[in-house]
Amino acid sequence: MASVEQAEYAAVLEAIRHWPPDARRGLVRELVKSLATPQATGAKEGRHAAESTGMETPDIGVADRPAKKTLADLVGLLRGDQPPPTDEEVECILGEERMKKYG
C-alpha cells in the first residue's frame, strides 16, 4: 500500500469504528459482495450506499447468496467414497468407541 492508501484506510477504519455493530456488519456484507461480483454496480449498489450513509444496514438476506452451489458442495463433502455402514457395522463401531471411552 502506498502511504496515501494507508492514510485513507486508517481514516475509513477510524470513521466506521464508532458505527453501531449492525451498520458495520452491513458494510462488511457489501464489501464481501463487491469482491464476489466486481461487475455488480448500478442502481442496487447506489441504494445500499444511500442506506449505509443513513446508518441503516442494507437488507442482504440469504436469498442474495448462491445457496444452491453451497448446498451441492456440502452434499458432495458428506457423500464420501464408500457406501454407508450397515446396522451391524454401526453397532460394532459404537461398541468399540464405548470400550475406548469407558474401558
Describe it.
- The chain has one domain.
- The protein is elongated and about 65 Å long.
- The model is unreliable at 40-58 (pLDDT under 50).
- The protein has 5 helices and no strands.
- With 103 residues, the protein is an all-alpha fold.
- The termini are far apart.
Ordered list of secondary-structure elements with their pairings:
Elements lengths: L2 H14 L4 H16 L6 H11 L13 H13 L7 H16 L1
Number of helices: 5
Classify the beta-strand content into a percent band.
Answer: under 5%
| Euclidean distance between termini CA atoms | 59 Å
Q: Which segments are poorly predicted (pLDDT under 50) over 5 or more consecutive residues?
A: 40-58
Number of β-strand runs: 0
Query: What percent of residues adopt helix (DSSP H or I)?
Result: 55-70%
Radius of gyration: 24 Å
Mean pLDDT across all residues, rounded? Answer: 74
- Class by SSE composition: mainly alpha
Largest sheet: none
| Tally of distinct domains | 1
Order of helices and strands: HHHHH
Shape: elongated
